[in-house]
Write the structure tokens for this entry.
Amino acid sequence: MDANKVSTVYQIYPKSFQDSDGDGVGDLQGVISRLDYLSWLGVEMIWLNPVYVSPGYDNGYDVADYTRIDPLFGSMDDMDELIREADNRGIGIMMDIVANHTSHQHEWFLQSERDPEGAYGNFYIWRDTPNEWSSFFGGGTWTYSPIRNQYYFHAFAPEQPDLNWKNEYVRKEMAEVLAFWVERGVTGFRFDVIDLIGKDVDRKQWLDFPLMRRYLKDLVAQVDTSSLLLVGEAGGLTPDEILDLQRDSSLDVVFNFEVCALDEQGGQGKWKLAPFEPSRLKTTLDTWQRAFAMEGRNSLFWNNHDQPRVISRWYDDDERAAKMLAVLLYGLKGIPFLYQGEEVGMTNGLIAPEDYQDIETLNYLKAGGTLDAVRMKGRDHARIPMLWGEGTDSFSTGTPWLQSAHNEAGRNVATMCTDETSLLYLYRELIALRRTNQLLRDGAYELVPTEERLYVYRRIIDGEPPLLVVANLSQDTLPLPSGCGERLISTEKDEAPMLRPFEAFICYNF
Ligand code: TEU
């Protein structure tokens, strides 16, 4: 697929999007019932978080069967209907492929555990003696299996054993999973923690790039990917490594998390918070934009199902900041990913301590973590049911699987739909603009030096008048930068002689 042509991917966390049967959990029929909304919004692809059969220790990132739908979400008929109905509206479906690990209840693991000499004996990473290495969810990376009398490796929870990618049959099986979904008509894949497939557990090395590159290249070479959008979640890759993968079409775009970590102390994990500094937002985005200024592209996103709302973490829930961030992101070079609820300014909301559900958060709290950090960075805050109306009633007629409260009136689809000056309408206009404006899609990126509270950059194509994107990252009133011509889109209804707090716009540059 020509990745530059995708104007917006909309991420749906199915558990929290729309419940159709009143059990408090979102499902595929729920997604289908909201396709007209997504079509109105103008999105071209949906990234669906995992809906495969799973015991749900990590909300579906522990897959027990890659080619069956979990009854919690519906059936394969529902999935086929979703693919068809989305396609009727010009919307593709991107499946989440969790290739690094499976569930401990996956048939491969059960067989591997029981029969070391059998066909699946070498599908996972088994050792007689474990080394000391910390997993991403806290605790060690090795768990003893009394059945096999050996230890197996897991980068995440013990219920998520890592596949042994050195085994060519593992790679073949995964290619068959891809082929299965291509056959059913999906238009993209998002590969979960794909940088980890080349790891060396004995040397305690998460990333061996040449190896990871080879495995990934082999994997995608086994299916016809020409009409697919390939997205890799690979926080450990450098821009050069990403460019390398883009050049040979192993991936179209990569998720990197440097921006998400701006409110962390750095090097000490996600829970050690530091104050957010707008100037660092600018320098970090600029570094990544420069790396792909002439070739390749970035992924552009603020939030996802792992990253709670940045307007809560950085900007005290301020809706003006949400608008500014929307314009700033849609001006950048790359593919924008919009996470459900972001278009109505959903915030981290409130969750009572006893209602936390996420395995990562529960482990952290058990280990003595603080609620303050969880309120900012706990993944449940990103997974609060979608606010279609004032409360979560319109998400489900039953009791939502995750209890939460919001106190920001009007931040929901029903309210914002009736207000053409709302954040929701701004997103709709931005999405439409990116669809038609070649400069925004393909133009090179160039920073315009300004003071640090202001982020100004140009998008350029030879022989065309450049665009200027101006974003006031602060609540201060600032002088307008020079060179601002006719505005294409703005957070404000009118123009003022000064830049208002959090004002942002895209205009022609003279
Ligand atoms: O996330 C990968 C990942 O690196 C996370 O551990 C991330 O660091 C953490 O969520 C930050 O809080 C992917 C999925 O997006 C996530 O939902 C899964 O839990 C994880 O892989 C394991 O499959």
Notes: The longest helix spans residues 168-183.
